[in-house]
């Protein structure tokens, strides 16, 4: 079996969160979606599970991080610099926030950070390993 990652995120408004992730290029997997959770697929190995707060609380008693706090920054690879830019534009146009940190262009690597409507932070990044400095 291929190793996979399922990133679980608590969300306030499940339909809004699903629409946001679809605008970024994720695809919903209805097999694992209901009124309390939605499986959003990025690749064969990467899935994001959007969970209502009630569903989240069925897995843990730990508090949900308050809005505006920093929990993790999830980096996700893109096929080009243009795709990184499109992802940030889609975030801003669909209830998220683009460029929550300064963008970085190191020549061989380019990234921009965005937040979804619930404040979860993503780093859209592109890298050309062949152009990476040797030192």
Automatic annotation (TrEMBL):
Annotated ranges, domain VOC: 3-127
Domain of life: Bacteria
Family matches, as InterPro entries: Glyas_Bleomycin-R_OHBP_Dase, Glyas_Fos-R_dOase_dom, VOC_core
Keywords noted in UniProt: Lyase
GO molecular function, one term: lyase activity
Signal peptide: none
PANTHER family per record: BLR2408 PROTEIN, BLR2520 PROTEIN
Protein name (record): Lactoylglutathione lyase
Originating organism: Paradevosia shaoguanensis
Taxonomic lineage of the native organism: Bacteria, Pseudomonadati, Pseudomonadota, Alphaproteobacteria, Hyphomicrobiales
């Amino acid at each position: 079996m291929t190793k996979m990652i399922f990133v679980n995120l608590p969300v306030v408004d499940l339909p809004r969160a699903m629409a946001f992730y679809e605008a970024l290029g994720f695809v919903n997997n209805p097999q694992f979606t209901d009124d309390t959770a939605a499986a959003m697929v990025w690749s064969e190995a990467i899935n994001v599970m959007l969970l209502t707060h009630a569903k989240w609380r069925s897995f843990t008693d730990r508090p949900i991080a308050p809005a505006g706090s920093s929990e993790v920054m999830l980096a996700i690879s893109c096929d080009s610099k243009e795709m990184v830019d499109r992802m940030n534009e889609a975030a801003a146009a669909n209830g998220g926030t683009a460029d929550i940190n300064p963008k970085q262009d190191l020549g061989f690597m380019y990234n921009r950070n965005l937040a979804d409507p619930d404040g979860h932070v993503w780093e859209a990044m592109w890298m050309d390993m062949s152009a990476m400095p040797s030192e």
